[in-house]
């Protein structure tokens, strides 16, 4: 049996394992993913936001509390959404990445935490994200690092078959969990193809002190577990083939 991302979090056995991990203090979200995401986010006061794969809404609520005027938080899982935290400026919607859509140029920010490695057609999703963003809008997301999604053999940290992109099946609490591997090069070129210029890449790993306190994290210094990408929608003048245009007042290279 295989379980795709859109059904995975409604599988009781999987969800039980996932929630135990998140509550155990051993998950990578708090020490690595959340700080990396927070550092990469642009100012959100007044922003309209889409959160893809919002889960229980932690990031969506943080963005609303930071001043976003509207956060449309999207997830395929009925059970995750049933446990989502209510907030007056967060709207939860059950939808699949494959066909979710919002009007053109209707949001300033699209975010996603550790969900887009479940997307089969990344090019199609990025094309839609690029349409949703206003010029200058940002797309900030984390995924499982391609060095983690690459190996076909579940060896410790031997990276293998890196160039063979596509579907991978793994056991993660349950057998047959489907994720999609793509290289960093493919991620960046797909974003650029749709006019999204990468301003920041981050590969957060635990500190040596963190590993000393939690030795089970040592593997995450041997190969990075998470890739963060922050990209910005720019309007390219006709004929520009060499790089992003100069922005009035200087080109920002960092979203933080
Ligand atoms: C690892 S969880 C991350 C949840 C949340 N972003 C966080 O960081 O706590 C991945 C989420 O992506 C959602 N998801 C996976 N595939 C999806 C799809 N095809 N369409 C919509 N949501 C999907 C899952 O239901 C799950 O809630």
Classify the beta-strand content into a percent band.
Answer: 25-35%
Count of DSSP E strands? 9
Order of strands in the sheet with the most strands? 3-2-1-4-5-9-8
The CATH topology label is Rossmann fold
Helix content: 25-40%
Bound molecules: S-adenosylmethionine
Q: Helix segment count?
A: 10
Shape: globular
Structural features:
9 strands, disordered C terminus, Rossmann fold, 25% strand, 10 helices, 256 residues, alpha/beta, 7-stranded mixed beta sheet
Write up what this structure looks like.
- A 7-stranded mixed sheet has the order 3-2-1-4-5-9-8, with helices on both faces.
- The protein has a single domain, classed as Vaccinia Virus protein VP39 (Rossmann fold), CATH 3.40.50.150.
- 34% of the residues are buried.
- It has 10 helices and 9 strands.
- Strand 4, helix 6 and strand 5 (133-144) form a beta-alpha-beta unit.
- It has helices at residues 5-8, 12-24, 29-40, 58-65, 78-82, 122-132, 146-149, 184-193, 208-213, 219-222, and strands at residues 48-52, 70-75, 90-94, 107-113, 133-144, 166-172, 174-181, 196-202, 226-233.
- With 256 residues, the protein is an alpha/beta fold.
- The longest helix is centred in the N-terminal third of the chain and has 13 residues, at 12-24.
- S-adenosylmethionine is lined by residues 5-6, 9, 29, 53-55, 58-59, 75-77, 80, 96-97, 113-115, 118.
